[in-house]
Amino acid sequence: MSPMSKEPADLVQALRAAGIRDERLLEAVRTTPRAEFVPASQLAMAYRDVPVAIGQGQVTTQPSLSAMMIESLGLEGREHVLEIGTGLGFQTALLARLAADVVSIEIGPDIARQARDNLARQKVRNVELRVGDGSGGVPDRAPYDAVVVSAAFPEVPAPLIAQVRPSGRLVQPIGPGGHEQVVYFLRTASGLEQRRVLTAARFVQLQGRYGFPQGDRDPL
């Protein structure tokens, strides 16, 4: 993609080139201005297929990677979705346009406040945004039809497994943080079963009670 890319259509083109085929998802990207979900200092990068720094040692997920994770969930519009790691809300907004409702939890209060403002400006109303330890999920709103985890841990935390509805789906980067495989899981009668590896990627660590201790340095 050209460094001068500056329109949502440019990002849609990049996602198509990366193999994204879900037309509902591509339309959500087209109608959700990423420029409204990045810091002012990063506006030039908004419609390029790259992660951007959002402060506090965090970065957004690269749009094509986020789209790949979302596409794997097969959302049809009826789902109750849990998102671990709100960031500044762009992925949250996409999920909200594709599912019935989204519960999203962000560990950083300042980042969560920015995300809430971003979502409100875009009139995204079917999101419940929590501030707290995402490694334990949001049990009072479970079970979920789909869960997307935007941070890495060597295994799926047990509380998240328990919060996935039977036949529900979960996607998470599995690894130490910085060198992962993004894995799609299906909840079956016998538990959470790995179905396929979507791609290799680099993510920040999942921190919290059921993740890495808070304050550990990510290897990024």
TrEMBL record:
GO MF terms held by the record: protein-L-isoaspartate (D-aspartate) O-methyltransferase activity
User: Would the keyword S-adenosyl-L-methionine turn up in this protein's UniProt record?
Assistant: yes
Primary location recorded for the protein, binned into one broad class? cytoplasm
* Pfam families associated with the record: PCMT
A GO cellular-component term linked to this record: cytoplasm
UniProt xrefs under InterPro entries: PCMT, SAM-dependent_MTases_sf
Record GO biological process:
methylation
Q: What is its EC number?
A: 2.1.1.77
Q: Where in the cell is it found?
A: Cytoplasm
Highest taxon, organism lineage: Bacteria
Gene3D superfamilies attached here?
Vaccinia Virus protein VP39
Tell me which UniProt keywords the record has, alphabetically. Cytoplasm, Methyltransferase, S-adenosyl-L-methionine, Transferase
Family the UniProt entry places it in: Belongs to the methyltransferase superfamily. L-isoaspartyl/D-aspartyl protein methyltransferase family.
Please identify the protein, giving its name as recorded: Protein-L-isoaspartate O-methyltransferase
- Taxonomic lineage of this organism? Bacteria, Bacillati, Actinomycetota, Actinomycetes, Kitasatosporales
